[in-house]
Amino acid sequence: MNSALQFQSSPYTAFMQETKVDLGNGIQLHVESGGDPKNPTILLVMGLGAQMLFWPDFFCKSLIDQGYHVIRFDNRDIGLSSKIRHKGPRLNSYKLMGRFALGLPNDGAPYNLYDMADDVALLIDHLGLGKVNILGASMGGMISQILAAKYPEKIEKVGLLFTSNNQPLLPPPFPKQLFSLIGKPESHDEDGIINHSLKVFKTIGSPGYINQMEAMQIARKLYQRSYHPAGVLQQFLAILCTGSLLQLDKQIQQPTLVVHGSRDRLLPPSHGKAVAKAIKGAKFELIQGMGHDIPPHFIPQLSGLFAHHFKS
Predict the structure, then answer these.
(1) What's the rounded Cα separation, in Å, for the pair 182 and 196?
(2) For residue 43, what are the β-bridge partners?
(3) Where's the AB hydrolase-1 domain (predicted)?
């Protein structure tokens, strides 16, 4: 690890430390790391509109306990990382979504997933990590696919969780799940926003595994840490303006494990299967009963699968 960086204790867990990393491209990322820096690193990349705390503490801890140095961070435009102020014309997301589904190119977003992948490549350099194992969830999995293809010298192995390569004609997200994610809360006070978050957790999460009290505490913690809906929309536009990653997948040489939940209705399992099929030698694992989230019930199984993959 780069010893010039000043780490402080994380306000969330006893076993992580936090710092800000200036990437030199106008972006600062908020980063937490835990475990022994001499151990192999797993870099966790989160999904659309999701702060790094969506990587549950218990998940990070179980990877640390299995002998890894674990890093999670807020992507640009979310959490405590830099926000992108965009002055360009407003884009019609419905029009973009239609073109995206058919595999037609879109442009005009303030940035795309290639820019976000460059952020992560710069983060690896600035932290002095050498080669890392990358584990990306959802949009973070898309960013991880780009990283593995574009920066093979930085990525040892690849783990992908409930993600897609956005190739044309994959089954679209179920409308209820998609609109819960990009919809607006009924009111903009703290309770209105927390109720909205709870609805989202319930709609996209693993049916039967959502603990109402716990979900509420998490929603409040996330809201108090940072609330920036404009960033969520801009990240969504970044996905729509990146398009299919199918050709990139064909360039990925690293050992890759793709894991998907059988009850995922935001990105149905065929998305994960498409990714695994496109990456040479990739393994695919379907988790029965899991949705588009990481509930405590599935953490031992998930962390075990990925820890084993990165070791083997």
Answers:
(1) 11
(2) 71, 134
(3) 40-169
